[in-house]
Amino acid sequence: DAGVTQSPTHLIKTRGQQVTLRCSPKSGHDTVSWYQQALGQGPQFIFQYYEEEERQRGNFPDRFSGHQFPNYSSELNVNALLLGDSALYLCASSRSGQGSYEQYFGPGTRLTVT
Amino acid sequence: AQSVTQLGSHVSVSEGALVLLRCNYSSSVPPYLFWYVQYPNQGLQLLLKYTTGATLVKGINGFEAEFKKSETSFHLTKPSAHMSDAAEYFCAVSDTGGFKTIFGAGTRLFVKA
Fold first, then answer.
1. How confident is the model over A78-97, as pLDDT tens digits?
2. CA distance A19 to A55
3. Which residues in chain A have their CB less than 8 angstroms from residue B21's CB?
4. What is the DSSP letter of B62?
5. Does the beta-carbon distance from A108 to B32 stay under 8 Å?
6. For residues A108 and A34, what is the distance between their CA atoms, to the nearest angstrom?
7. With contact defined as beta carbons under 8 Å apart, do B9 and B107 qualify?
8. Of A4, A42, A107, the CB nearest to B103
9. How far is A48 from chain B (nearest CA, A)?
C-alpha cells in the first residue's frame, strides 16, 4: 500500500517564476491538505481540498492556488515566486469523515527560490 | 482562533533518561491534539493523538501524552530515551471540524550517549 507521494523531491526556481507541485494521496484517502514548512519552523497550513474544492484556507496570498483531480490527487501552484517562498512543501492526506484527524504526510518537495 | 506553544526549541537528554517535551495550546472549542515526529529530510509521522475519551494517550515507540484541560497542556513523555529518538517533534491542534491543523514551532530532541 503506497503512502502519500510527492513530486518532484527538489526544485530550484528563479524569483518571479511559477511552480507546480504534485501530490498523490494514500490509497482510500480523499482529502488533501498542503503545508509550507520554512527552515527551522513548524508546518503552516496553506489549504485543504475535498471533492475537488478548496474547503479551508490558511493565511496565504492568492499567489498560492491548488487543484484536486477526480482521482483525489492534488496540485499546488505558486505564482510570482518570492525568495521567501523557499521552503519544504508538505502534502497530507486523510479520509473524509475524519477531517484532518488522521493525516498521513508525504516526504515533501524542497523548493529553493533564487 | 487556535494556537500551540512548544516550550523549548531544543531539549537534550542522556540515553535512558526521561524525555519530556512540553506543549500548551489555546482553543475556543474542544481541541483535538497531536504529536508528530520528523526525521531529517522526511515528512511528519503521527506519534499519537487525543480526540475524546481517556486523557492519557499512548502512541508509537513508547511515547505517551496526557491531555490536561485545566492546564491547557498536552506534554509528551517517554520513560527511557533511545538514540533513535533524536528528531524534531511537533505538537499540533485541530478544530473539531478537522479542516485545519495548527502546528507548534517544534522541539528538537538530542539524545546523548
1. 999 999 999 999 999 998 87
2. 22
3. none
4. G
5. no
6. 10
7. yes
8. A42
9. 7
Asked if B112 and B103 count as a contact pair (C-beta separation under 8 A), the reply is no
Is A4–B43 a contact, with Cβ atoms under 8 angstroms apart?
yes
User: What are the backbone angles phi and psi of residue B19, rounded to the nearest 5°?
Assistant: -105, 130
For B53, counting Cβ atoms within 10 Å of its Cβ (0-12 exposed, 13-18 middle, 19+ buried), the class is exposed
Nearest CA in chain A to B41: A107
Phi, psi of B78 (to 5 degrees): -150, 130
Containing A41, the helix (H) or strand (E) segment is none
Give Cα B96 to chain centroid, integer Å: 18
From the centroid of its chain, how far is CA B92?
A: 7
* Contact residues, chain A, for B105 at CB < 8 Å: 41-42
Q: First and final CA of chain A: distance in angstroms?
A: 37
Maximum C-alpha span of chain B? 43
d(C-alpha A49, C-alpha A34), whole Å = 9
A62 within 8 A of A44, measured Cβ to Cβ? no
| Residue that is written with C-alpha cell 527551522 in the block | A40
For a pLDDT cut of 90, what percent of chain B falls above it?
A: 78
DSSP symbol at B25:
E
Longest dimension (CA), chain A: 41
Note the pLDDT tens digit of each residue in B25-69: 998 888 899 999 999 878 899 999 998 888 899 999 999 999 999
CB atoms within 10 A of CB B46: 18
Helix (H, G, I), strand (E, B), or coil: what is residue A103? coil
